[in-house]
Every structure is written in C-alpha cells, then in structure tokens.
Design goal:
The structure holds 2 protein chains of 2 kinds. By secondary structure, chain A is α/β, with parallel strands linked by helices. Chain A is 49% helix and 21% strand. The relative contact order of chain A is 0.13. Classes of the chains: A alpha/beta, B alpha+beta.
C-alpha cells in the first residue's frame, strides 16, 4: 500500500534533502508544503499520513501546526525535523503530540532507524514496490542534480546557504541556551547579497546614531573569510549586565567589555554551527568595537574595492528575559563563494549517500 | 624535553596551532618543515602540502636574495633578527584579517627570525615568527596622514599671516 508522506519545510533545499534521506524502495507518495497552513490543508486532503515537519517557517511555524493537528485531531503521524536542538524545543514538540525529533541535516540511517522502530516502515512496504519507488526517487535525484549544477558554477545558490544557516542557527541557539542560560527566540536567518551601499548605510548608522553600537570580528579558514558584525540597538545596559552576570558599577569600559564579550559568544556560537557543517575550522580575530578606534567614514572610503557582492547572513536575536535585541550579520567575501559552493555540494552528496 | 609525553605533546600542539601568531620552521636550504594553524588559515595551504617545498616556491613574491642575507646572518651570529612592517609591509601575501571593515587590503607583518640549534648545538633549522600588526600599522598610517595635513594647514596659515 502506498503511504502518503508530506514534507513541510520552507526551504526547498531542505525538502530535497529530506526526500533523499528517505529509505530507497519505500512505497510512498510524497507531497510538499512550504509552511504549516499548506501542510494542514494537505493533511485534510489525505496527503500526509506521515508528516516530516520543520519548526521554523513563515506563515505558520511547526509549533502552531502541531497545535492545530492536536486540536483538530487530524490523522497524521508527525516527525519533527529541525535544526533547533534546544532541549526545550525537543520537549515542547513531544508535548504537542509529535512522534519524534530528527536533527538537521537529516541523516539517512537515523531516519531509517526511526521509521523502523515505530513500525511505520515494514519489510513488506519495501519489497512490494521496488520499481515504483525507484522511479520516484530518480525524479527527485534528477532535481537534486540540477541543484548541484547550480552550486558548482560560481553562482550563489541562496537556498543551500539558507539551509546551512538555519541549521547553524539551531545549533547556536542550543549553545547559547547553555552558556547564557536563557531561551533565545529562534529567528529565521535571512540570506542575501548585500550591495555595497547597504553596507555603507549600516555602518553609517552605527556612527551617526549613538544608540547603535557595533562589534566586528574577522574570521578565516580553508579559503573562506569574512567578518561577523553585531549591531546592538538601544542597548539595555542593565539587561546586559544581568545577562553577563556583572555586579557592581557599570563604567564605560565595563559596558564595552560586556558588549564585546556577548558579541564574541553570539558570533562564536553561530560560526561553530556553520563551520561544523562544512567541516572547516575558522580562526577568529580579536573582536573590536567599531568606531571606537577609527572613523567609520574612513572605513567606507578606504575599502570600496572589497565590497562587491558580499553574501550576508542576517540573524535577529531577541533575548526577551533581559530585554535585549541585536542583529548578527555574517559577511562572506566574494573570493570565498566558489570554495563554499564546493563544500555545499559535498554536504549535499554526503547526506544523500 | 625528555619528559615530554604524548599528552603534553598534544596540548602543546593544540596551543601552537591556535595561537594567533604565525610559526614556520625551515631548514638550512629554506625547505619548509612545518607551519602552524595561523599560516594554514591565512595562506590556505596545509602544513603537509607546504612541507618539502622551499619558502620561495610557496611564496615567490619573497625577495630571495634579501631574505637569505637576513637568515644567513642569523645562522652565523646565532642571534635572532627582526623585520618590521616599516621595512617590508607584507612579507607573506595575506589578506587583512578583517577583509570588510579593515582600512587596508593586506595584512601588515612583523617577522622575527629565530635560530633553532639542534642537540649538538649546530643551527640546522630556522623559525620564522609572523605577527599580524595590521591594526597598529594602519592606525599609524592614518595618524601620519593627519600630521601631514596639519603641517600643510599650518604652512598655509603662516603664509596667510605673512601676507597680512
């Protein structure tokens, strides 16, 4: 019997990765949804006896989707697939009725193990439909191959970067939860090409608006280099002091130290998750408060030549408990893109092997 | 160093590899024996790849004659020698650690050449220690420009005073 399977993820890269992680020769009929609303619709149409559900999505996220499934008692078995590996997230989805949790990037053997252990995948499902599923997978493979070709040229396949960023974000949130002892509201990273003028604007704003402070830190490794930039808006210094567990008087020097320390943690946590997936290691420069030692205008004037087509991953962190908000922007230089593209191809192949 | 066991070797290696200073060991024929993580990251050439090649093969932009003269004197005297960024700003062609908000495109370096005597006391290896001094250098350059501007303005003021 063909089992209707639904894969719900806002990233098409992630959806394809999930298809590739499914057992070969499994007699399934795969549908896709890009957000929770589409998923609910598809389940109601009987397209999702089994649902692979991402947590961070626009429109309706994974938690909301689980709530609706539970409330309306929809006929589906949900397996959450997410980069958010904070223990709290894990507990929360189980409470909301999810069967289990798979960590991104999805690993083929883990998926098989899980499906077998829950009795979802039975021996007979495999044997009966060898031919059928093979052809379905061939189609999926073909699509992925197109994707690979896209990657291999020096073009930027934003989708692949988006997915790596999402996973890195999940790992970062887990590290942050442990180091800072707070829950970090998990945002969806924005990946885009930054024009030089946008970067000018951003840096100018840190210079002209006294309420914005910026910390930057260089990173380099395996031919990949760039800078991480953190922008703090209207820094709530008391909140910052509580978060960093600082007692006593807050001087300007201490305020700066706390900003730099927190930046280093936020940058480090994300870069760790990012480089870990690509199997590279980065060395990082000393973090520096921008504008403190040199004039921002000088930076803008002196460096135009390096500012063509910078890939940027933007993440908006909100730590509600301490009323803190900041943007982390990972800037990746143009020279790094071909090397990163190659790594992404490798990553794709590895998880489908 | 005879007491150096494997565990100690492990952390020492870790430290050498993660220190933010470049370390290169070459033999008397300028063939690279090894270099540390700093050199790997900034050159994007693995230590195993660099091993066995001469320094000038890997970095053809280094002025061979000039560099050999420096190193030979280190071997003869048995004392270290220094190259500062003011003499040679970029011995190794590395990009600025901060490629986007940095003021200059390339990394400014100070290099120390250190003789490494073998157990017999003969100098068979040389170590190069590479410091990233981009911040200090670019700040100094900016300062210099500012001074020049002040001097220029001063002479203009003086000229105006004389006129009036």
């Amino acid at each position: 019997m063909t089992i209707p399977i639904l894969i719900c993820d806002d990233s098409s890269f992630a959806r394809k990765q999930m298809v590739r992680a499914l057992p070969k020769n499994w007699d399934v009929d795969i549908s896709f949804a890009e957000n929770g609303e589409q998923a609910i619709e598809a389940i109601k149409q009987g397209k999702g006896d089994i649902l692979f559900l991402d947590l961070n999505m626009p429109v309706l996220d994974g938690y909301g989707t689980l709530e609706i499934i539970q409330a309306q008692d929809l006929p589906t078995l949900t397996i959450v697939v997410s980069g958010d590996i904070q223990p709290k997230a894990h507990d929360k989805v189980k409470k909301l009725g999810a069967l289990d949790f798979i960590k991104k990037p999805t690993d083929k053997s883990k998926v098989l193990e899980l499906l077998t252990s829950y009795g979802i995948l039975r021996e007979e499902d495999l044997l009966q439909a060898e031919m059928l599923a093979d052809s379905a997978l061939a189609i999926a493979d073909n699509e992925s191959d197109n994707k690979l070709k896209l990657c291999s040229k020096n073009q930027i396949n934003l989708d692949a970067y988006q997915e790596v960023a999402n996973v890195a974000m999940g790992r970062a949130a887990d590290l942050l939860a442990r180091v800072l002892n707070v829950t970090v509201r998990l945002p969806i990273p924005k990946v885009n090409i930054l024009a030089a003028s946008e970067l000018h604007m951003m840096l100018k704003a840190t210079d002209e608006t006294s309420s914005i402070s910026a910390v930057c830190q260089g990173y380099i490794g395996c031919g990949i280099s760039g800078e991480a930039l953190i922008l703090f808006y209207d820094s709530n210094i008391d909140g910052l002091a509580r978060l960093m567990d600082h007692q006593g008087e807050i001087t300007t020097a201490i305020e700066r130290e706390m900003l730099v320390d927190l930046s280093n943690i936020l940058i480090g946590a994300f870069l760790k998750g990012f480089s870990g997936q690509l199997d590279v290691s980065f060395s990082q420069s000393h973090p520096e408060l921008l504008g403190l030692h040199r004039d921002i205008n000088q930076i803008i004037q002196s460096n135009n030549r390096n500012w063509q087509d910078i890939l940027a991953i933007e993440i908006n962190y909100v730590i509600e408990e301490h009323d803190l908000e900041c943007d982390l922007i990972i800037l990746i230089t143009q020279d790094s893109i071909p090397i990163l593209n190659n790594k992404l191809i490798y990553l794709l192949e590895e998880h489908s092997a | 160093m005879s007491g150096l066991d494997f565990k100690e070797f492990h952390w020492m290696l870790n430290m050498i590899n993660s220190i933010d200073v470049g370390m290169v060991v070459i033999d008397n024929n300028y063939v690279i024996d090894s270099w540390n993580g700093f050199m790997v990251h900034h050159s994007n050439i693995d230590a195993s790849e660099a091993k066995g090649k001469t320094l000038f093969q890997v970095f053809p932009q280094i002025d061979e004659k000039w560099f050999k003269r420096k190193v030979e004197s280190v071997k003869t005297i048995g004392n270290q020698s220094f190259i500062t960024w003011e003499q040679k700003p970029h011995i190794f062609p590395f990009k600025n650690y901060r490629p986007i908000t940095g003021l200059v495109e390339y990394m400014y370096q100070n290099v120390t050449i250190v003789p490494l005597p073998s157990l017999t006391g003969k100098i068979e290896q040389i170590s190069l220690i590479v410091y990233d001094v981009t911040d200090a250098a670019s700040n100094r350059l900016v300062l210099q420009q500012a001074h020049e501007k002040i001097d220029q303005l001063n002479s203009q003021i003086n000229a105006l005073k004389q006129h009036s």
